[in-house]
Amino acid sequence: MLGGAPATTVQLPATFFLLLLLITTTNCSNLPSLTVAEFASLQVSPSLVVEKSPGSRPGSPVVCERVEINGLSRLTNLTSFFSSVKLNVLNVNSTGRPPNITVCFHRNASLGVGMCPEDQWEKLTKGSWVKSMSPFDHKLLDIRIVGPSVGTAEVVLNEEFYVYRVIFLVLGVALLTFASSLSNSLIVYYGGAMTLGVMLVVLVILFQGMRILPSGRKSSLALVLYGSIVGVGSFLFSYVPTLLRSLLVEMGIGEDLYSPLAVFLVAFVALTGAWLGFWAVRRLVLTEDGSIDTGVAQFVKWSFRIVASSMILQSSVDPLLAVAALVFGVLIPSAVKGLYSYAHKILFATNKGKHTRSYQRVSSPVEDSYEDKLKTHKLSEANTFYSSFHDTTERRQYSKDEWDEFTKESTKKALESLVCSPDFNRWAVAHADRITLLPKKDAKQRGKSWLPWS
């Protein structure tokens, strides 16, 4: 009897816990629910009386209802990566005074029905309330009606696909992959600078031209800001012809000269903007020897990567999938670099094998022993070097290290003989103003990269 008492005491809390869990599960399963789909709707008539609901007047009747919104599985519904769900709550009462309906959209299942904080309740505007959510998210919607009137609300789910998110993902991954190559390309710098130069010249001409018109300086500045921020292209194509006609009329030029002047003006603007961009690149980007400045290239490279990361994160409304896409985009450059290095090694080994087989000859034991003796001597000990390509008896094969050492020593001796010659000394004295020493470009002087593909 004494030994059985502790077992009964342990079993009671466990049974109570299981019973409480069963009750909670049963209550949650009784909630009206909606599952994300292309289109889904549900009509709800709140009937649960809630006392002391935050934000409600004391003593006023409050009825609430909770709707469970079930999202999709991420692994099995990756086609909804670029989609978002619009949740719409509508007042379907057609007659009588519209009820005072407020909603609370949250994911805190521990809150009681209708017990959201006061600042989280939102009213229906003109009988409607719209909110966007991820198609993979699971949330709760509390609907509350304050006052004696009774109403019915309709909850509508509509999944929408956005093409611009696909473009963001493709452009982001491509820009992240080729950021290093683009930052070292002169075409990118010249093209971008010339485009910005043309736009700058156009805006300056518009601003100066609109100052002449009776519209005044204030309205012209606002118009220029609108055109440069909201929609440069649409604004220019719609407003520039009217502006040019007004300017030509003010100067007393006839309509027969409109087309030639327009052509010359467009050519002038394009050439001026292109020259401005060209000058900016030559002045700010390139060094004295014509190469791209290392600091500018690093800044542009990381700017590309930041912009690309932002585009990838904006490709999906779901934060987990957006971060996963960003990680995938970061790993792509490493994979591309590894595949390129592997293919380059295979191609180099194949070409080297073909080159070796094309010059391979049949040698006798005497010749082999002679070549072995030659390999014991350093290449720089004799001034006679036998051909490594022609089929001669003195032919031998060099290893990569031997060939590099031979090249270095031969170049050093040739430079020493050149410097010691009287002709070179006379030439150096006569052209001393043309001799400059550039800083040595060493890979060790570059900053260490944080990532293997940077």
Automatic annotation (TrEMBL):
<keyword id="KW-0812">Transmembrane</keyword>
<feature type="transmembrane region" description="Helical">
    <location>
        <begin position="261"/>
        <end position="281"/>
    </location>
</feature>
<dbReference type="Pfam" id="PF10225">
    <property type="entry name" value="NEMP"/>
</dbReference>
<keyword id="KW-0472">Membrane</keyword>
<keyword id="KW-1133">Transmembrane helix</keyword>
<feature type="transmembrane region" description="Helical">
    <location>
        <begin position="162"/>
        <end position="179"/>
    </location>
</feature>
<feature type="transmembrane region" description="Helical">
    <location>
        <begin position="320"/>
        <end position="340"/>
    </location>
</feature>
<feature type="transmembrane region" description="Helical">
    <location>
        <begin position="219"/>
        <end position="240"/>
    </location>
</feature>
<dbReference type="InterPro" id="IPR019358">
    <property type="entry name" value="NEMP_fam"/>
</dbReference>
<comment type="similarity">
    <text>Belongs to the NEMP family.</text>
</comment>
<dbReference type="GO" id="GO:0005637">
    <property type="term" value="C:nuclear inner membrane"/>
</dbReference>
<feature type="signal peptide">
    <location>
        <begin position="1"/>
        <end position="28"/>
    </location>
</feature>
<keyword id="KW-0732">Signal</keyword>
<keyword id="KW-0539">Nucleus</keyword>
<protein>
    <recommendedName>
        <fullName>Transmembrane protein 194</fullName>
    </recommendedName>
</protein>
<feature type="transmembrane region" description="Helical">
    <location>
        <begin position="186"/>
        <end position="207"/>
    </location>
</feature>
